[in-house]
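Issue 218. Parser rejects a valid record. Input:
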Amino acid sequence: MTQTSPATFKAAMIQMRSGLKPAANLDDATRLIGEAKAAGADYVQTPEMTNLLAANRDQLFAAIVEEEHDTSLAAYRELARKLGLFIHVGSMAIKVSPDKAANRGFLITPAGDIAARYDKIHMFDVDLGNGESYRESRNYSAGERAVLSDLPWGRLGLTICYDLRFPDLYRALAEAGATMLAIPSAFTRPTGEAHWHVLMRARAIENGSFVLASAQAGKHESGRETYGHSIIVDPWGRVLAEGGTETGIVMAEIDPAEVTKARAKVPSLQHGRRFGMAEPMAEAAHLHLVRE
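Output the parser choked on:
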């Protein structure tokens, strides 16, 4: 059997259907992560809201705890040690005050250490026009830092779901050295059907970076329906692997050399220019970018 070159690695997107019980969701994720490891994965990513997907505020705050008391997070750290792989928990609802949570992602090393934390910056406050309405800012505090972390195969930019619609964030990550962009998500079915593929491919193409996006999928216990279609896109915009609407694993072998090739063909990262506006505008807020 041909061995995977040390210069490449296998990435696995864990597609879930999180319910209202964190322990049950942990069991599901643990099983799928184990299957991914058995299939050769070096890096696994779970979707947004891995620990639970709750639409009701009372249900949410009855189930979540502070980071230091979260048994699911402790279990993922132990699982990373046991399996010897990078586990990127796409996001968890973490209690940060009596009335607010953080939508927080964790990158865990094979030693079980937390290499990086990322709090979702852009809050999903929308009315979709079909009776679906979301106010993420009611329950969650927005993050203020863009986050990068080094893996053995390149630099990973951490983002979450609705961040996908804000290309400046991804350009900032790419200009800071990101060769891979993580976008764990829980896209609604209507927005996913309309925009998922084109936005994921656009973020990959315009930044010459791999996009790694695990997703929630199907009809959830909370009543919400998510799009699924976990996806891995290469820096030229080619879809390397894609899921459907059922739970499972989406895997692809990642060759970091493809980033160099794509950026040499279209060196847009070198051609960006800063420009002023013809009319006065309020100064945009600047995010603090950190490498962890």
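Fixed in the parser; the record now loads. The chain has one domain: 9-266.
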